[in-house]
Structures are given as C-alpha cells and as structure tokens.
Amino acid sequence: NGQPGCEESLDAFKAITGGLLAFGNRMACSHMRATELPIAERLLRDNTNHTPEQEECQWVGYQCKSYINFQEGLCSDCGNDGKKCKLIEYLPEFWLKPDNLVDVQQNYPQNLYMLTSGTPPYCVFHYMIELKMDDTVKYEGKIEFKLNGTQTVTFKRKFYAYPNTTTYNFLYTSQQHLGQITEIDIQYETTLIGDLVKASQILNPFTFLNEIKKEDINISNISVIFMSNIDKSVRDGYSSHLVPNPSKKSEGGLTRIDAFFETTDCLKRHCYKDVGCFQSGAFIRDMGKYVPHARPIINAMKDNKFRVVNNEFMICPVNPEHADVEFIMFTPEAVNNSIKFTYNPSNQSLLGSSFSPDRKTLFLVHGFIDGYKGCDDYGSCHWMSRIKDYFVRYNYNVVAIDWHKVGVSANYMYSAYNVRVVGAMVANFIRRIKAVYNYPLSKVEVMGHSLGGQMVGFVGKQFPGPEKIGLIMSLDPAGPGYDKVSIEPTDADFVVAVHTSTGFFKSVNVNSLFEVNPLESVQFSGVTGTERSVGHLDFWVNGGNGQPGCEKTTASFFHDMLFTGLMGAGNRVACSHMRATELPSAEGIAKAEHTRCQSVGYECNSYLDFQMGKCGDCGVDGGRCKLLEYMPSEWLLDDNRAKTMDKYPTNLYFLTDATAPYCVFHYQIVLDMAKLKYDGTLSVTLRGRKTIHFTINKPLAFQGRDRFTYLYTDVNHLGRITSATINFRKTALGTFIKGTVVLNPFTSVLGIMKPDIDIKAVNVNFMSNIDPEYCTKNIFIGTIADQFGPNDRYI
Description:
Structural class: alpha+beta
CATH architecture of the largest domain: Sandwich
Shape: elongated
Radius of gyration: 34 Å
Low-confidence stretches: 9-15, 47-54, 247-263, 505-526, 783-795
Strand order of the largest sheet: 14-13-16-15-17-18-19-20-23-21-22
CATH topology of the largest domain: Lipoxygenase-1
Number of helices: 23
Largest sheet: 11 strands, mixed
GO molecular function: lipase activity
Keywords: Secreted
InterPro entries: AB_hydrolase_fold, Lipase, TAG_lipase
Mean pLDDT: 77
Subcellular location: Secreted
Number of strands: 30
Family: Belongs to the AB hydrolase superfamily. Lipase family.
Helix content: 25-40%
C-alpha cells in the first residue's frame, strides 16, 4: 500500500489540505497503480526506449518474513537454487519454464516484496549494502554513504547501537543504474543521544582510557548486492565486496558536496569554468528586509549538525556541475523527438542535432516551482510545451530549459539568487551555438516566466555588446528579490515585458464601480510580479493584475479551497501570475483561426484613464499604440523599432477575456456634447454586424467637460457601426436639482425648456488592430442634429 506519488488518504493534514475531491483521488491512487504496471512492463521490454543498463532493471520480488524486514535489507538473497525471489511478469516468459512452474505450484502462497518509483516505468534498481564491523557499535548515529560506480550517489541512514551486533544491512534504491560499485566513502556522526551516551562514558571514572580512545565505528568490509535482475550472473556482475583502504581515507570523512556549504562558505566568491564568478553576500544583505530575523538565526547555527538546515536557508551559488540543468531541443524535424544537452555541449553533439542556423531560435525558461513537463496521456500540455509547438510550427529552433533542481526549493531566495548562475549557463550554451554555427545573436530570442522572466535578463547581461541578443520576452517577471538588480532594456536589442500579477490590490473596472465586491479586490498573488517597468515596452494586461476568471477571496475561492484543498487554493492565487504563460500560445490559436482581433496596447497616463476610454488614439505616426507580439514581425520594422528606441520605457494597456484566446475587441466611444446640468446615466445601443446595449452608470454631471469618453469591449466583432441610439435618464439627484430650477421664480421659460443633454456627435473608434486602414473601415462618426427635450429622449 501507500504507493509512491500517492499520499496517504488517512493522513488528516493531507485530507484537509487536499480537499474532498483530492481526498477521493488520493484514496484511489494506490488502488489504481496496479492497473498501470502491466503497461509499464511494456516500456521496460521496449529496447528502443532505454539504454542496455536500464534493460537490466526488472521487477524482482523477494521472499521475506515482513515488509519491515525487507526495507531493512534483510532479504536480498535468492537462495542457492534461486527459489527465494520471483520475477513479476504480466506477459509471462520466465514463469513458464518447467522448473520455475513446478516450484511455484509446490510452494504457495509466496509473499514477495519490492519497491517502485512514483512514475512510469516504475522500476527502480535495488541494492543491499551490508556492513561488517570489527566490534559492536557503541553510540547511536547517522552514517552517510557515497557510492562510486558508473554513477555517484550519496545518501544517509540512521545507525542504532545494538548489543552483540556486528553486521548491519541497508536497502538502497535508485532510478539510475549505478553499475558495479568500485569505491565507497563513509562518514559517521553521532546523534544527540549518541553524544550523551558517549559523554556519560567519558565522565565515568571506571571507563578505561583505551575504551575512550576507540573509534566510534570500525568497519572490516562492505558488500553491495545488486538485486534487480532474475539472472544470477547479472546480479553477481554488478555486486561488489570492498575492504578498507587506509591510503584513501579523507580527513574528516566525506568531502562535502555543494549542498552542504556552511554559512561562511556561502559568502565567499565562487568561480566556475565557462560560467563565471558569483558572490551572494550583497544579495543576502538586500534580502534582509524580507526576512529580517532569519539571517542572525541561521548564522548562529554553525554547528555541523545544522548543515542541512543551513542549506535550506542559505543563499549559496549553485555549482553548475550539480545543478542538473537540461537544455531540451526541438525543431520542425524533431517536434516529438527532443535532444537533451548540458550547458556546455560538444561540437559533435550540436552538429549531430537537427538544429538549423537558417532559423531563428527561441530559448524558453520556466519559473519558481516549475519545470518542463511536456504533455500527459490525456493531451493536456504544460505551457512550455504549448509555446514550443507554436514556435516550431512557424519554423523555429526551440530550446526548453529545465532548471527545476534549482528552481524548486523551500527557500525562494535561494532560487531567486541562482537565476544568475543558471542564466550564465544558458548564455554559455548560446555561445557554443554561436561558435559552432557562426550563429548571429540577432536571431536569438529568449522568453521566460516569473523567475525565468528575470533570468532572461541575466542571460542578456552576459552579452553586453556591441552584439546583443535580438529579443527578450519577460512574462510577468518576478518581483521579490529584484529591487536593485533586475531585467532592464539594455539586456537585449529589444526587451518586452508582459505584466499580469503586480501589486497587492486587484485593478477595479471603473465602469462597474458600484458592482465591486470589496473582498474580491484583494489579490494575494500580486506580490509575485514586479511593479517596475523593465523593458522597452511594458504591457500591463488588465492593468497588470486581477486577470478575468481568477477569483481570489470570494465565496468561489473558499468553495474551491474546500473541494481542491490548499493546492487548489494555491493555483487560484497563482492564476493571474500564470496567465502570462497562456497568452503566447493563445496568439498561435488566433493566427491559426485568422482572427482579426489583435492585442493592441495603448499608451496612457494610467490604467484608470485607459478604462475611462481616454486613450484610444494611436497618434499621427502610430507611435502611441503597439501590437503585443510573442513572435515578432511588426516590432522588427525599422520605423517601429526607431520609434520605440526614441522613448522608453513605454507603458501600454489593454483588456482581455477570461478564456482563450483571450483577445477582446476594444471600442472607444466619444460623445461631443455641451456641459451637463443634471446628474444622470446613459443607455447606449450600437448597431453594426451585431447590435449591443450597455449602460454607462458613472455619473456624468461631474465630468465638467464637453467631451465624454467610454471604453467598450466585446468578444465579438461588431463590424462597422451604422447607427447609435442614446437614452439619457436623470438620477434621483438630477431630478431633484431640476425641480429646484423649475420652481425657482427667477428661472426663465427658455431656461426651463432647454434640453437636459445636448449631444453634437458620437464617434466610435475601433482599437483592436494595428493597421490604421483597417481601423478606419470599422469606425462610426455620426453627427446628431436633433436635441433632447425636457423629458427622456432617444436619438
């Protein structure tokens, strides 16, 4: 029971945090795992899907008195006749051999145990490690193993002091084949209980001096038994027997890997070949404002026992060799057959790929607690996969960068700092392509989300000029941790940022101000994105936060929290932040459907002014509006680039729908009229390809001007507007004020008979296309000859 990847359904905390639906799914997860193993067997037998070493991973179950004994490594022997272990087969071959069949029929039931991983094909390599001591272990402790074979792995196990015991067994599993173990390094340290026992013996006056000087443990030999193959010759071939080598003994036990930097080590300058030098001290000091009390607490924990805790909270430059960053290349010739590279690929590996120097290349980077995941069995694809498909379809080389080992951390600041290191690794990969193919940087485009949206800036900083990266697209770049050093316009020839979750409070639509739910105005995800303008062009989608369809604190939020748990609530909180990742692939949908709706951002003094319809003009030269393009064409025109470079940053605004492809048609409605005397509202009907009705509830009498503007959006194209009907209706306040005017004996008859509203013209400007000729064909300019009378009038 309790299969890997299936949280225990009886765990009260997870039952609460997972919600009722998640509770049911988790409860069935282990039950359904049995149905997945037969298909996984096919993956194991398919020689085209893995290396020869992986073919030797088999599901071998071992007879044992109990599962606990199996976990302790006490059951690793198949016996002299091989009858104590059995191969799990859904398509039987081994079982059908006469000797094996007779054994099973004569000795049943047989209870056999094995372990699996949490993902297909589920098979893991089993190793039993047997330590033989010259003497019993006196003190409880922890032992750290470093196994060196074709792979090197490090792991820890608890070590108990059992009387009269000189043999200790440990079961270790790995998803990688370690090959034959040729060397083992061991480090042993006592636990707190062990330290207390040892101290009591030292202080005991009856303890002999030679007993005090004895080593805590004294290992005579170590055996490593390979368990994951039914063939005895294969098992023996990968098993090892090792004895101590005094000349190899290192001072202080194991050499520490990068994960165990002490506090002082973190602050040092770390230099790595082909990547550069990094020092986190200044960043740590700047981050003190986010966690002001954490640093002195961590600095106080200098004892070796706290080194793992230190690692979680220290901000250390990651070693590129241990970061496990994958560069996954896709091309039109290899859409589904990706090639994986390290950050420093060889000439031969690059030349052997389907990379074409004739194409542009997109580098795609994920953010915090994310990674490249591809598509699942049901056709649901990760955002990176959708964007990859879009760009490959238009003849791009695409390199998806998976840095989840660094990006998925309990300490956000650790990941936030190390975008510098990973960014330098990406830059090194680009240099390798440039060197091998004489590839111009102008054909390189880099797109990243969240922390990846900041990382792309650090990639660009590696090429200070005169030749720079062609384009950087930053999707809702992260805010926390980037107050001083951040992505900026100088990082590439052209830098564009798309903001979807900035600020703590959700932007409110002023046209429905009186319908706002105060609870819904709070947007916790706002702290994820930066509030700064960081590019040549900064697009603030729906004001930069509170994306449509992303509820936050209303009843629906608590409903989702009940049925999907904290993870579901977390997804809601991240909804606006993740919307930035959906817009690029939505652009691909719009292109495929040949829609005429374009996401055109307009310059405006503020988002409030944009919502009020004040900014619907592209200007005489078209420089006051810009098309949001993830696959650029309009931007690259010389005139447009020059206009952008003359003045930046440029802040642009537009609205979207709640569902893909998100684009909505924008219309600016301009009413030219005399100053209003009475408070009232307008009901507007526009007739074109479609007839629409809407009400302007905002009090008009307080505008104090002869021109009133309004922004209207619709998911449908209205076509050219041919006529408009406007109804003005006084509010209760307006009616009261007019009544006082009528009853005033000094008011003239002409004053009483004057119309309540005097509209001279109605202009409807189409905003959702960058082509001025197309926009001109889709506007309406009407001159109103009639005037309103004393009562409600229609035009």
